[in-house]
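Our collaborator T.R. sent over the components below with a one-line note: 'Predict the complex.' Nothing else. No constraints on interfaces, no templates requested, no preferences about which chain binds where. So this is a plain run: every listed entity goes in together, and whatever single assembly comes back becomes the starting point for the next discussion.
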Amino acid sequence: MLEAGKPATPLKSETLQVLLERGLVNQASDLEALDARLAEGPVTVYAGFDATAASLHVGHLMPLMTLRWMQKLGHRPIAVLGGGTTQVGDPSFRNEARPLLDELKIASNVSGIRRCIERLVSMDGDDGALLVDNAEWLTEFRFLEFLRDYGSQFTVNRMVTFESVKSRLDTQSPLTVLEFCYMMLQAVDFLELSRRYNCEMQIGGSDQWGNIVNGIELGRKADGRKLHGLTVPLLTTASGAKMGKTAAGAVWLHPEHLSPFVFWQFWRNTADADVGRFLRLFTELPMNEVERLSALEGHELNDAKKVLATQVTAIVHGPEEARKALEQGEALFGGAEELLEPTHVLPRIRLSEGLGLLELLVLVGFAGSNGEARRLVEGGGVRLNRQVVDDARRQITAGNLQADDRLALAVGKRRKALVGFD
RNA sequence: GGAGGAGUGCCCGAGUGGCUAAAGGGGGCGGACUGUAAAUCCGCUGGCUAUGCCUACGUUGGUUCGAAUCCAACCUCCUCCA
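Returned assembly:
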């Protein structure tokens, strides 16, 4: 185990050096052995993703960036979608059972998540990254067979020593057998992947540590293989809060859940204190450039934030979207107060049918309910075509459209929408 | 197995029959200031077809004109005894 940024001895592998200097390492199972193995040649490495939502969010960017770097350095990533394990629910560090999702919902989530991952790691070619769903093997097991083959490799004695389980037991919160067995499933995943794809390494969030260690131990007991594990740090902001939430919810990676421009804005609004760390973690700029940008002071740091936002957006949504987002951001805050392209398009009949301002705010996602929209309006935070509107009963009609036939809607300083009608 | 204490809104936490959609703080959002930052100050912070209605104080029933507040059972947590 090691603390980030403090290698005990000089590292032999470029891979580990890069991951460390980017700040992507929290702890590793056996750092020296892992370093030696990585220096030897390409490995196959996997990270698992729960299928609990239809898109990944910025928190997932840490393991994804790790896979991406490793692919760049010649290793082969496997992204494992938890189509099987999600049917059980990871109990780690939770005080109560997660609601279980049905298979149909999971299947649709899997396809959205696949889309997110594809942007970060290349799946092309024979040696491209693999995307596998653990439902493939987990759903095949029959109970007795599973107990015989794997149950014998785990001792309850060992399982209860894991922090994730211990906390539940210590506080006497109920931990069902179903949840308890989750770690077996994830361990079996690792074993299966090592057998099927010669996968030797797993990465995950720091909350996955126990699950990862279990897999490593299973590999050793069942097959006598040396497997490796690495966790990435928990993503927090400088103010200590868990990162990745905005007013509208999580910062999704899927463009259908969060537009590239809003995504860009999220990064543009990074607090000063986080800029350097985020540049290292979420961009691929060379370290000297990262350092130059982080050293900027005062309002010049805003330039570093734009670079950060544009770089991250380019990775997640592509360079074209990133360029457009930057352009839009510049225009919007450079005085134009106007988006370049409509962010939303509504049927024109809505204008004659009667469209309330509150309803419109909900439609474009600036408010989660009419009540919230009302509060925004009454608090003076809403502007229609650059003018503050504080009448919550305001109706939108054709007469409100600007010369360009559009409607400029803004909430606060940063949230802006341009609504077109056709 | 026995005795006592506790379970409140996104989180922490006050509240022991009507004045409680529920103090206070955190977080979040909006406003002012600024650099689309931080800090600070001010406001808002359950939903709705909205001078009213619905949902909400572990769960389910009950008492009462009226319950987060009283009673019963159940679930869960904490402390002490065996």
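Summary for T.R.: Chain A is about 45% helix and 15% strand.
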